[in-house]
Amino acid sequence: MHASLLTRRASLLLPFLLAACGHEERQNFPLLRYNYLPPIRLNVAQFTVEQRFYPSGLAPDITALAPVHPVEALRAMAEDRLQALGTSGQAVFGITNASLTRQGDMIACALAVVLEIYPTPGLRSGFAQANASRQHTGPVDDLRGALYDITKATMDAMNVEFEYQVRRNLEPWLVPAAGMLPPVQQQPLDTSPTEQPPGEPPPGVPPMQAPSDGAPMQPTPLGMPSQQYQQPP
Q1: What is residue 120's DSSP assignment?
Q2: CATH architecture, range 40-173
Q3: CA atoms within a 13 Å half-sphere pointing along the CA-CB vector of 149
Q4: Of 48, 91, 126, 183, which has the fewest CB atoms closer than 10 Å, so is most exposed?
Q5: Cα separation, 228 vs 208, whole angstroms
Q6: What is the pLDDT of residue 169?
Q7: What's the farthest any 2 CA atoms get from each other in the chain?
Q8: pTM score > 0.90 for this model?
Q9: Alpha-carbon distance 99 to 110, whole Å?
Q10: Tens digit of pLDDT for each residue in 120-140?
């Protein structure tokens, strides 16, 4: 009876002992959503998400221990950011890597995706690939918390890289935002004659020179010096 009472007291004190030792585990892990970022508007009728990578579950893989799985974070990014606004064609968002590994004191997260455009089934007309990775080195007291933080940091980097690669490689398939003006086209040079300032000779006409003897002003002959021309004796 005495031993069971001690065991019950010890179990009640365990959370406080862990907190005192700095080993209290975090319990709140919000879902990673990205609908606060500007959408990527695609000129296709629909898009789908394909998971093409599955963690091995064998060391050094520790993806299963993460409170938010990297695959689900990438799926949320696709659902929150991609919009299909066209009337035909399909976009496929493929998840090609979503892993968390631990080797010694180093935890690494690696993500990779590809966005493919199919105007007709089986005919791929363009694609964009994006990769992002982050590492943490050092002792970890709260493994689940560390995995959440590194997944979030890698996803933040992925959002930036993914948008950059899509706008770089799939520009013909992007729909401008509502109200956005089309890019300014280069205008041809204006070859119409311009107004000549008062007192200035038109182009190609030499300026008038006043002779020293009071004779009427005459234009300087082309190729002659600017001083008055003297007839040789």
Answers
A1: B
A2: 2-Layer Sandwich (3.30)
A3: 11
A4: 183
A5: 11
A6: 98
A7: 144
A8: no
A9: 5
A10: 999 999 999 999 999 999 999
